[in-house]
From TrEMBL:
Domain TtsA-like Glycoside hydrolase family: 11-99
Protein name, as recorded: Peptidoglycan domain protein
Xref: Pfam families: Glyco_hydro_108, PG_binding_3
SUPFAM superfamilies according to UniProt: Lysozyme-like (SSF53955)
InterPro entries named among the record's database cross-references: Lysozyme-like_dom_sf, Peptidoglycan-bd_3, TtsA-like_GH18_dom
Peptidoglycan binding domain span: 102-173
Signal peptide start-end: none
């Protein structure tokens, strides 16, 4: 069986993230290539083997960003133990965009919609992976897309300051659904019911919430 490969997902993430941004309204704060300053400071030594200086953060290369993506992928997939490429990408997206909360949401989805009894702790281990691997991938993917869409709408409703990012979040989610349209076996709009058609915009408007 061909294993999922994080490298297939790297171009998608980098295309949507853009470069250095310091938007005071963005809850993620200062970011570069989608990586927050806080994440860089905490993980630069472990992931890149370098000191997390201001210069290093602002001049991060795509190759370095790819190493961060692999770090998030490994954490989200229990070191690449998820069997399906699209599911591995979706879980990594939740980890990349929402951190531990995103992984907790994935576990909660497995409990709520598929009858699992997983600890909702944001730690992806053998039990979570085994549960995910037992589910028909198109079914799980469609539920994940629908749950992520609902999360974005709820976030904008709870925190109106984030509402201006909503269009970018939904565009990105629609793009992800389009990427796996064959997996979904139908128009992905069915699963992302309020996603607008892809619209051009600056990378600053097309960011995940961190």
């Amino acid at each position: 069986m061909k294993r999922p490969d994080y490298r297939l997902f790297v171009p998608f993430i980098l295309r949507w993230e853009g470069g250095y941004v310091n938007d005071p309204i963005d809850r993620g704060g200062e970011t570069n290539k989608g990586i927050t300053r806080a994440t860089f400071n905490a993980l630069a030594d472990t992931v890149l083997g370098i000191e997390p200086t201001d210069w290093a953060f602002k001049n991060m290369t795509e190759a370095q960003a790819e190493l961060f993506i692999k770090h998030y992928w490994d954490k989200a997939t229990y070191n690449n133990s998820i069997h399906d490429q699209a599911i591995a990408e979706a879980i990594t997206s939740w980890n990349w965009g929402s951190g531990r909360y995103g992984l907790m949401t994935f576990q909660r989805l497995l409990n709520d919609e598929f009858g699992e009894d997983l600890a909702v702790d944001g730690i992806i281990g053998p039990k979570t992976v085994n549960a995910a691997n037992q589910i028909h991938p198109p079914t799980l993917l469609s539920r994940m897309i629908a749950r992520r869409e609902r999360f974005f709408w709820d976030l904008a409703k709870m925190d109106p300051s984030q509402e201006r990012f909503l269009k970018g979040w939904l565009n990105r989610l629609q793009d992800f659904a389009d990427r796996h349209k064959k997996k979904l076996h139908s128009d992905p709009q069915e699963y992302c019911s309020h996603c607008p058609h892809l619209a051009s915009g600056s990378s600053k408007d097309q960011k995940f919430d961190e």
